[in-house]
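Input record, target 12 of the design panel.
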């Protein structure tokens, strides 16, 4: 815990905030996108935005795997769960995400379907081993952080000779999502979203390394700083991005040197390459169909692929028009722009995935900033107020 506390120290945060305030040029604005929902929650939980000068803006990105799962793909999980022979195993967040016609896995379970919540992928394998009469399907959702664990699961199922285990694979790729943001009309042509640089996710990068981001930095001239999920990590990354922008540089820097290397985790990458291959196209909520943006299970492991085994028919599904999740995922709107936020839509009664997930932007706003104008720099508790050296921007 002492190690974590060091990255939450109020005095150090205030000192970093003073440096940022001194280095951020008054004649310009800085728009920095935190790609990952984990960063969004760290920023709100610790009041990081309140430590920044008013011309440093944090834009929330699409890095929440629950939020970006297209409704049509979620409908596929419900179709599996409706089959009497199937036990569908899922992480808790996914159970509450509204699918088409306001259905959800939780409602299916209440109606008698065998849907079980797991804290780890390994639990699904354990269920398959102990209940051989059931067809156990693991609903795999996530970015590169969790993909190696799913690959390991499939290899383990093969080693054990399990005939009643399969995976409904919805693993997606971070670089493809960043590319789609940079190529989006809102960013390239319309000027509706400005992104000057990216705070990159450390857990994803621990697997894939920092190298894949070099393309964005060079080709799109946007600096990327990979950062940990503690408030001092985020503040340091913001300072590094501002420094690059002031100097007219655009390269990849690694703030999270305690866990990320340029090459990433080779063993994890080998596991993923053994079991998975690229899909030519995959639907994302908010970002549409993106080429080569997700993984599927290789033909050599087809018997562990629930889509093949159960001949799943997937159709595109319309998103709920009242929900602004797609625009929030693209950084075009904020949760408070949604008319349903905090009234019709709450964590107890979520209308969209961004209010369900622990990493969703709407959930973060609801938990930490209800009724607060986020762009105004109003002071908030946490890191900002724990310091005896309050930063001027923190009380502006
Ligand atoms: S507040 Fe609810 S309905 Fe509105 S965008 Fe967020 S999740 Fe969707």
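The sequence produced for target 12 reads:
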């Amino acid at each position: 815990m002492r190690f974590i506390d060091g990255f939450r120290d109020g005095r150090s945060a205030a000192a970093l905030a003073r440096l940022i305030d001194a280095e951020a040029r008054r004649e310009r604005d800085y728009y920095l996108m935190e790609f990952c929902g984990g960063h969004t929650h760290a920023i709100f939980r610790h009041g990081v935005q309140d430590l920044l000068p008013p011309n440093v803006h944090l834009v929330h990105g699409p890095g929440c795997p629950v939020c970006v799962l297209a409704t049509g793909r979620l409908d596929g999980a419900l179709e599996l769960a409706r089959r009497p022979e199937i036990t569908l195993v899922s992480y808790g967040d996914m159970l509450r995400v509204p699918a088409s016609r306001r259905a959800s896995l939780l409602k299916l379970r209440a109606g008698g379907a065998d849907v079980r919540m797991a804290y780890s992928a390994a639990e699904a394998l354990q269920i398959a081993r102990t209940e051989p009469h059931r067809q156990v399907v693991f609903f795999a959702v996530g970015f590169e952080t969790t993909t190696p664990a799913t690959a390991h699961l499939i290899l383990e199922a093969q080693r054990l000779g399990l005939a009643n285990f399969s995976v409904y694979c919805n693993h997606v790729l971070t670089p493809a999502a960043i590319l789609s943001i940079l190529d989006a009309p809102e960013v390239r042509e319309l000027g509706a979203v400005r992104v000057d640089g990216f705070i990159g996710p450390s857990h994803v990068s621990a697997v894939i390394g920092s190298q894949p981001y070099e393309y964005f930095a060079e080709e799109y001239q946007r600096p990327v700083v990979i950062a940990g999920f503690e408030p001092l990590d985020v503040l340091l990354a913001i300072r590094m991005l501002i420094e690059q922008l002031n100097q007219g540089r655009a390269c990849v820097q690694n703030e999270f040197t305690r866990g990320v290397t340029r090459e990433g985790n080779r063993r994890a990458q080998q596991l993923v390459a053994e079991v998975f291959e690229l899909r030519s196209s995959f639907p994302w909520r908010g970002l549409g169909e993106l080429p080569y943006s997700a993984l599927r299970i290789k033909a050599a492991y087809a018997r562990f692929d629930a889509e093949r085994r159960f001949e799943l028919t997937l159709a595109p599904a319309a998103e709920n028009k009242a929900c602004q999740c797609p625009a929030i995922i693209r950084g075009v709107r904020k949760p408070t722009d949604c008319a349903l936020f905090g009234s019709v839509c709450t964590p107890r009664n979520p209308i969209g995935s961004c209010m369900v997930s622990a990493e969703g932007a709407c959930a973060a706003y609801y938990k930490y900033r209800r009724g607060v104008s986020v762009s105004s720099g109003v002071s908030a508790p946490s890191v900002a107020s724990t310091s005896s050296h309050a930063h001027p921007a923190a009380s502006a």
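Residues 336 and 365 are 8 Å apart (CA to CA).
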